[in-house]
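Exercise 7b. Backbone tokens:
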């Protein structure tokens, strides 16, 4: 099922075109990465897709329903999400549990299922043993991991992630990619993830959307398809270049 469908999207900063006629899609059950050189407007494309920024032209459609016909739940993890103030008053456990409130309602008591979900989320990022610590006591990489755990606790259908492994070590990053692959392939989630290192994640991702600068200095994109062993080079047919 198609969760994101973007057609001919063009975005300007002031009067300067940055993205021109970009088209891409993300379906349920797939883990898609978004790559490009530094300054390739990857975050801009994500924010425009989400409606945080408004395109000059084009159509962005995000499904309102998931594969079960229920309201689609979406989680967005921006860059530098782990920049918590040192005096942030919540414990790790309280912070991650707050991710359950949109599902239960702010005034409903959490049940055993919620407790188990939070524990699973914290264990999945290696932070269960830190559950009683105050957030201000954590390192940047640990804060990043609990932000991811909170996102998992909310149990979204669609994950949109902007360089989520910043501050993580190699083992934690690999564990995270495996977790996203599992969420997509075993639970039918859709994942769109910006990464600066496609080689690191290519063993887990199904497809890569690559932004590149054309001869006119504008960014367009094409798909690099994965066979699970690695990413193949694009054919001319796969290049969706809009001059």
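Sequence design result:
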């Amino acid at each position: 099922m198609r969760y994101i469908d973007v057609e001919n999207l063009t975005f300007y900063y002031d009067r300067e075109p940055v993205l021109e006629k970009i088209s891409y899609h993300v379906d349920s059950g797939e883990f898609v990465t978004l790559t490009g050189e530094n300054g390739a407007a990857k975050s801009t494309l994500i924010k425009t897709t989400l409606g945080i920024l408004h395109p000059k032209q084009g159509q962005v459609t995000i499904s309102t329903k998931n594969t079960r016909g229920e309201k689609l739940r979406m989680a967005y993890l921006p860059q530098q999400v782990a920049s918590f103030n040192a005096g942030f008053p919540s414990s790790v456990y309280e912070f991650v549990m707050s991710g359950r409130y949109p599902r239960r309602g702010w005034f409903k008591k959490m049940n055993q299922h919620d407790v188990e979900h939070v524990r699973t989320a914290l264990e999945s990022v290696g932070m269960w043993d830190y559950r009683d610590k105050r957030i201000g006591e954590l390192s940047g990489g640990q804060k990043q991991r609990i932000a991811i755990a909170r996102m998992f606790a909310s149990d979204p259908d669609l994950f949109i992630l902007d360089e989520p492994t910043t501050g993580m070590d190699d083992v934690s990053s690999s564990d995270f990619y495996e977790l996203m692959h599992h969420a997509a392939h075993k639970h039918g989630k859709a994942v769109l993830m910006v990464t600066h290192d496609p080689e690191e994640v290519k063993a887990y991702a199904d497809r890569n959307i690559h932004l590149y600068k054309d001869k006119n200095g504008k960014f367009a994109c094409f798909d690099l398809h994965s066979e699970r062993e690695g990413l193949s080079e694009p054919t001319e047919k796969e290049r969706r270049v809009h001059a």
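Instructor comment: The helical segments are 42-50, 92-97, 101-104, 112-124, 140-153, 170-187, 198-201. Confidence is low (pLDDT under 50) at residues 226-243.
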